[in-house]
Design brief:
alpha+beta; Hect, E3 ligase catalytic domain fold; 5-stranded mixed beta sheet; 3-stranded antiparallel beta sheet; disordered N terminus; binds zinc ion
Amino acid sequence: MKFNGTTGGIDIAFRNLIAGLYSQDLSDKVRSGKDTKTRSGKVIATYPTYGYDKDPSDHHKFVLNPKESAIVKRVFDLAAEGVSVAEIIRILNADNVPTMQASKQEKGFKTKWGRGDCWGRWVISKMLRDEQYTGKLIWGKTRVVALGSREIATVPRSEWIIVPGAIPAIVTNEQFELVQKKLAEKSKPHRNEREHKPVFYRNIKCGDCGRAMSYRARKNGMGLYLCTMHLLSDKYVCKTGKIEERDLYDAVLKTIQVQAALAITEKTLQKSKTADLLNTADAICGKIRAMQISIEKVKAQKVSLWEQLYGAKITRDKYHKENEKLTARIAEYEKTISALEADARKIELDSGQENIFVERYSKFSNIQSLTREMVNELVKEIRVYSPDRIEIVMNYADEFEKLQSSLPN
Ligand SMILES: [Zn+2]
């Protein structure tokens, strides 16, 4: 369903998709088993890190993938010469170097993100900071923040499990350190000292190319989002433009407020509906009791009829006729009772139903500001088509649809 609303001059095409199902993070038990294996130098990752293959004779070992490791080496060489990340990406894309995603697909890996038609900033930045390329096996760098969260937290280096020399090196320690120094020189200072922390986490997507938009911070207050893909590859000509973080923030806040108000309305409706249902259930029970009394009465009539026959007050013929009528009446009453009982069971089921949408949203009824946790729980993604046209995709969508169909007009 589509909900078209306006807030602060932005048209919001608001569409609900199927609620995101988040797989549970590994249990502590599984994790500690994996820790032990890693400590003994065994590779436990399901898929090898880019640049490597799994050793066909030992699945707990990595061997070099010649094509991929050459690309990793090239990226590090360029970075060590002081070439910027954006420039490295431009070079790879201009040379039509197969992307990481394309390699993964060729190997038949199931991957969750990226489109694979072009190298992106995130992949290269991550590659250049991946210490594994110096031959160290590393486990436990990140962890999912909370059950059901998409947010990944960085674990302090002191808690990582690092086994040097456990996998083949692609770059030397010296080159890796040099690259880290060059990256640090280029990165913007005071990044962590900024007062404002954006609430959106990689879920602002460019409506043209579908990739996550880049965040540009400002010295004070909120920043802005823009698609930078056209800077990285000629294949991209996104016309999305820049969108103010303030506008996104206000639109999402307004959307959640509207949804929460709807959830509260529904909650009230459900309460009175439940009360109505209970009254109806009481009435049905009363009817069933009355029917049972009627059956008892008819049974008494049958006894009296038999007594009349026994006292020779009626003929055998008349007795059979009358008795048949009474038996039919009892059968009719019993049929009515089972129909009433079926109604009662249905009411019991209806009154026990809880709507997840109502449950999730009603607790946000009085919010005046957004938090990252709230955005993670409720917002699947936001597609930006232009600075004045966005689409907010919310979670718990199928539940919302159920609710929409049950609301009175
Ligand atoms: Zn784009």
